[in-house]
Write a structure and sequence with these properties.
The complex is a heterodimer of chains A (634) and B (72). Chain A is α+β, with helices and mostly antiparallel strands and 634 residues long. Chain A has 19 helices and 11 strands. With 72 residues, chain B is mostly helical. The chains are: A alpha+beta (634), B mainly alpha (72).
Amino acid sequence: MILRMNKVRVLGPREQYPEALCVLQDTGVVHLTVPGLDGRLLPLRLSVWQERESGHLRRLLADVEVLLEALPTTGAGVGQAPRAGPPGGLPARRDLTRWARLVGGLRPEVLGLRGEMAILAEEHALLSKYGPFLSTFGVILRSERAWPHIAAYHVILPAQEESAVAGLKTALALVLGEGFALETRRLPGGDIALLMLVPEADALRVESLLAAAGVHEIPVPSGYEARSLAQALPRMMDRLESIPRELRVREKELERLTALYRDELCNARRGLHDRLRTLGAMPLLGATQRVFVIEGWVPVSENERLAESLATSLGGETALEVIDNHPRGEDVPVALRNPGFLRPFEIIVRLLPLPSYGTVDPTPLVAGFFPLFFGFMLGDVGYALVLAALALLLARRSIPGSLGRSVAAVAGTCAFWSLAFGVAFGEVFGNLGREHLGIHAVAFDREEALESLLLLAVAFGFVHILLGLALGVFTARRHPREAAGRALTAGIVVAGVVVLGAGAGFLPEIALLPAAGALVVALMALVAVEGVLAFVELLSAFGSILSYSRLMAIGTASMMLAVVANDLGSAVSVPVVGVLVAVLFHLVNFVLGVFSPTIHSLRLHYVEFFGKFYRSGGVPYRPFGHWDPGVGRT
Amino acid sequence: MELLAVTLGAALAVGLTALATGWAQSKIGAAGAATIAERPELTSTVIIMLAIPETMLILGFVVAVLILTRVG
């Protein structure tokens, strides 16, 4: 449901406005608005000093965020989570000074450590590339000094250029005859390490040959300048071993800093956000020479608590008055509040803009119909159990109140209805249960009873759309002509369905004449109330009801795909392969069978159902309060 | 001859509506992809919009079922 709001005004002596703001922030229930200003009541602008303070706090906050990002979040050094709940009051000046000093001292140290670690990691990655070469040709390379007149060339070729080795051998044989040695080894990653030994006198010719072939020797990294890679490699490998030790030293230092300062930095972040919120709220206050005025929206249920908090903290000099207890209009903020078992379904409603204040929160109805439609379309015991298992897994891996937990709750309810309809249709992974487990349909066999299913789907649509039209009458209650039009449309839909039902023999024939009479009268009344264009709305209502036939169509398609999966599996002569084929097809069908009903159930709600009553455009209720790390909005 | 007409009628009911749905979805899909590139928060809305033309195909399927079960 949508929480009822009151518009309230807080009045008090001008010098008390900081304390009043503090109380409002601690209470966290007032959605601030700009008060009605006149010649005497002016907005409370920030002073030059406060503007400077705001800029300074923002820079300090940015530094705190950088430090929290740079300090490790796991490991022995991390302390307990920052204290829960509102800190109760804004940071004192001495806190701000302490945080500024802390950040000023910590920032260069932490960022310096992070910078050194980045350089070390980069160096380690570079040197690691030489490791395979050393391990492959280590013995030959170590004896290189024993060949005074031999030049060695070291190359790593990508795996896809393996064929170049043969070409290189041929070219070397042409130039040097038999006076060279060429060794190749495949490296673990697939690349090819290549070592060439040639007479020093022929080195220039070989280098030009390599250059012409586009083959480049492994460069010796900067800092290891030496005559050859063979001389540099041992030093590089020593360095490679020492880098992890150096990295560990820096990590330990960061963990030590985390243990010392992370909690304090978290408190600083919270305090700075709170102070910035207070400064940001000040232009929403009005003031004269002597008094301040704060206006805002408060849920009716929170009025008393707010009044008590103000009276306790500020005494009798500050007053709270309700200036509008029956608000209307688009500026009233909207807060949805539903019981715990319905709350997960708010994620479906929140995909659209919020409903306007004074209209209907459709969450309870969505909680009823969305899983029902989903279950009707999926309708398979096997798929329902898989979905339930996935929902359970997601519920265990998500924290309460998170999006994941809400999705898990919705999926669990959908799985329940899929199971119920699966039992009704007698389906376990399509016709598998019927053919091998002896299960039979309790209500309908979806392979055979297509017309019955179609009628049931349209009946769901009839109920849903009628409910939507009834809610439309409620939401249009302040516009009598519109409300009457919707009520008449609902009446025509009912009368029309009775006429069709009686005509087709589904309903007693005696109902035909009264229903037809009511239909004609209601049609004439509708034209009188809303004009000829009302027929468009009427046709749209009947079209919407027919649109629910998708419940049957998608369900049938899903069931047929499951049957095809079973048939394909049994058509394969090798049983193991047949099972694998069937499992693969069922997997694809399960993904489609979850995705498609979700989309179409959403569509039936958003387009057909909500279209009859839903008025979007509600302003989200954002009370002025303490910064919440979970929301992260300042 | 009658069987051919019934089968052809059912095939046309599904085939033509599938073509119409595909054409509409191609237009919506192209615009939707551009929308998501600029405003990823509208992804769910775009997916819903993309599902709207499927009504044609679904109604075509229903008509085909009726042709096959009633006439066939």
